[in-house]
Amino acid sequence: MLKNKFEQKSLLQRFLFLFGFCFFLLYVGLGITLIVWKDMPIALEYNNRMLFGILLIVYGVFRFIRLRQEN
Fold first, then answer.
1. Distance between CA atoms of 60 and 33, rounded to whole angstroms?
2. Which residues cross the membrane (predicted)?
3. How many of the other CB atoms lie within 10 Å of CB of 51?
4. 71, 17 Cβ separation under 8 angstroms
5. Where are the domains of the chain?
6. What's the Cα-to-Cα distance from 28 to each of 1, 6, 48, 60, rounded to whole Å?
7. What residues contact 35, with CB distance under 8 A and at least 6 apart?
8. CA distance 63 to 43
9. Taking Cα atoms as reference points, which of 28, 66, 34 lies closest to residue 47?
């Protein structure tokens, strides 16, 4: 059965979408922070920070794509 595209979502569905979107922003923001911040208090080499930052950004984009597919 096809759902109406403009059907009102339940409060739980809207909350979970917003929650997932906040985590998408968190992962992308943390990834960018790891890449850009020069004098980080955590002792990581620049290459490892860059790799981890890119990994977080890719994971955040992956989560956002899955979130959009569910809705």
1. 14
2. 12-37, 49-65
3. 14
4. yes
5. 20-70
6. 36, 30, 17, 6
7. 49, 50, 53, 54
8. 28
9. 34
* CB-based burial, 16-46: b 16+ in 10 Å, e otherwise: eeeebeeebeebbeebeebbeeeeeeeeeee
Q: Which residue has the tokens 């906040």?
A: 22
Q: Walk along the chain (71 residues) and give the pLDDT tens digit of each residue.
A: 455 566 677 888 889 889 999 999 999 999 999 888 887 777 888 888 999 999 999 999 999 999 888 76
Q: Which amino acid is at 63?
A: R
56 token code pair? 């977080």
